[in-house]
Amino acid sequence: MLDQIKGLHHVTSMADDARMNNHFFTNTLGLRRVKKTVNFDSPDVYHLYYGDEIGTPGTVMTYFPFPQMPRGRAGTGEVGTTVFSVQEGSLGFWRDRLHALGVTGLKEEETFGEKRLYFAGPDGDGFALVEVRNDPRTPWTAGGISEDHAIRGFHSVAMRLRDEGATAELLKFMGYQELDRKDGVTRLIVPDGNGASLVDLETLPNVNRAAQGAGSVHHVAFAVDNREKQLEVRRALMDTGYHVTPVIDRDYFWAIYFRTPGGVLFEVATNEPGFDRDEDVAHLGSALKLPQQHKHLRPILESHLQKLED
């Protein structure tokens, strides 16, 4: 069993409108845009990152906004719900706020003894807020939401699977332990994690596979401290029979990818070097940052990419 993984690093999804996506995460949810860059493989598409003040691993929601992308179809083989942590007692604030701002899909329930509020993103994305007692992480508050209510980072992701068995075994190999089971959902936790330490597996044997599109999670990334730890994880996964990509430099972290038995794309990402490697903390997410191989495209991209603000 591995011990290098410390919880979630980031979750990457897809959208069809960059401006609407930016407004939702920075205005509606009050997160900070910590990086404005482009998709490495399709530089005419943004890669937008939202999180806490510095984009701490375990807080970062990222998006590829593909213009006019059709909506995804929910199903199995995907992350169905991305869940954020908020302070105990704050769900009333969020229910009123999201309702007033026209957010759809609002539903409250209690699961695993935790109060949660479900809601939909602009593309039908599945989200929830969960009240967590004494989450020590410091939230971003310059987005206009007080510290008492602001999002502190990820709580968990919930994966929809036809059969949880092989994915559960993989996560246990990656260092997760079973914490609880309830109503067809298995909850796993990584001990001594970064706060974004939980994964829920929902078994839906009679549900068709998902079709990716706007509103779908593209992949979920798990955090390791550095490249040395990442290489240890890569070797162990390959020795177990997984087909893992070579290490890829993503400018703000190094990444490896592999497909899970349940169909979800996993990434293992380093906590280094961080989002302040090419911008000072005070101005994170302000300027368009381009990977080295796309810097020659700056004039074209700056005229092509949608303006995020007025």
Describe, in plain words, how this protein is organized in 3D:
This is Dioxygenase. InterPro entries: cNMP-bd_dom, Extradiol_RC_dioxygenase, Glyas_Bleomycin-R_OHBP_Dase, Glyas_Fos-R_dOase_dom, VOC_core. It comes from Sinorhizobium saheli. This protein has 310 residues and is of the alpha+beta class. The protein has a single domain (8-304), classed as 2,3-Dihydroxybiphenyl 1,2-Dioxygenase, domain 1 (Roll), CATH 3.10.180. The chain is 16% helix and 35% strand. It has helices at residues 18-28, 91-100, 165-173, 227-239, 298-304; strands at residues 8-15, 32-38, 46-51, 60-65, 78-87, 107-111, 114-120, 126-132, 153-161, 177-182, 185-189, 198-203, 217-224, 248-249, 253-259, 265-273. The strands form 2 sheets. An 8-stranded mixed β-sheet has the order 2-3-4-1-13-16-15-14. Strands 6-7-8-5-9-12-11-10 form an 8-stranded mixed β-sheet, with helices on one face. A hairpin with a 3-residue loop joins strand 14 and strand 15. The longest helix is centred in the C-terminal third of the chain and has 13 residues, at 227-239. The radius of gyration is 18 Å and the shape is globular. It starts with 7 loop residues before the first strand and ends in a 6-residue tail after the last helix. The model has no long low-confidence stretch (mean pLDDT 97).
